[in-house]
Specification:
Elements lengths: L1 H11 L2 H27 L7 H18 L1 H18 L1 H8 L3 H34 L12 H26 L2 H19 L5 H7 L2 H7 L9 H26 L1
Helix pairs in contact: 1-6, 2-3, 2-4, 2-6, 3-6, 3-7, 4-6, 4-7, 4-8, 6-7, 6-11, 7-8, 7-10, 7-11, 8-9, 10-11
Length: 247
């Protein structure tokens, strides 16, 4: 618990943490409001209240998807910056267990990722609910929880992947570049290449987009959640094992 508290203190005292979070959340909120207004203005007048509620959830989670990359970058910065400055050696003197340090960072960053997704989704939904009031939207239907869960898990996975890449490469530029390729370039570029659907089904970018209904389904939702869970955990475990070998 002391290690988690120490990592939280380090992270919250860095200006870059709040800059990245602030820019990511505010930009996502702005684009969510713009996107929701545009989408809702094009709805058919005969849309039911339940369809409207589901449509609001989907529109809002466009913004949640957009926040994935800034949170992933925060993950890479949280540890690559320590390696660059040499501060990581002080951290390991205070806490010799490298796996404990990395897991503490993961706990703090995971909490921030969940908080960021809520800061986007809740105001975004309330805004969308107001704009769509003429359609008398109901409470979100059961299917909406797949979108909500997918959006939140997508942000957490990207953040954990960023942390794992930062710990593995120990260089913020390299780690962020790999993150952008995996989360952004492959999902969109893969659709245009032979066998791209297979590649997309095993990497985290496409399942996250599928769950928030921004991409066509190429796998069951349960499989998409499993792929995201895999990428949230396994790269972090690999980074821990690799770091222990280097040590």
């Amino acid at each position: 618990m002391n290690t988690v508290a120490a990592e939280w203190i380090k992270l919250r005292t860095l200006r870059s943490t709040w800059w990245v979070l602030g820019v990511g959340v505010l930009t996502a909120l702005g684009l969510t409001a713009l996107g929701a207004s545009t989408v809702i203005s094009r709805w058919d007048p005969g849309r039911t209240g339940e369809q409207s509620a589901m449509g609001i959830v989907v529109a809002v989670h466009v913004g949640v998807v957009l926040a994935q990359l800034p949170l992933g970058m925060l993950g890479t910065m949280s540890i690559s910056g320590e390696y660059t400055s040499g501060m990581i050696h002080t951290t390991f003197v205070a806490t010799p267990s490298r796996s404990r340090v990395l897991l503490a960072k993961a706990s703090v960053l995971g909490g921030l990722a969940v908080a960021a997704s809520l800061l986007i989704a809740i105001p975004g939904y309330l805004y969308g609910f107001t704009v769509a009031s003429a359609f008398d939207p109901t409470l979100p239907p059961v299917e909406a929880w797949t979108v909500i869960g997918g959006g939140m898990l997508g942000i957490v996975t990207t953040t954990m992947l960023g942390l794992a890449l930062g710990a593995t490469f120990r260089n913020g530029v390299v780690a962020t570049s790999v993150l952008v390729v995996v989360m952004v370039l492959v999902p969109f570029g893969g659709r245009m290449l032979p066998g791209g659907e297979v590649v997309n089904s095993i990497l985290p970018g496409y399942p996250a987009l599928q769950l928030v209904e921004q991409m066509p389904d190429i796998m069951p939702d349960a499989a998409a959640f499993a792929v995201l869970g895999f990428w949230a955990v396994v790269p972090l475990l690999v980074a821990i094992l690799a770091d222990q070998r280097v040590a």
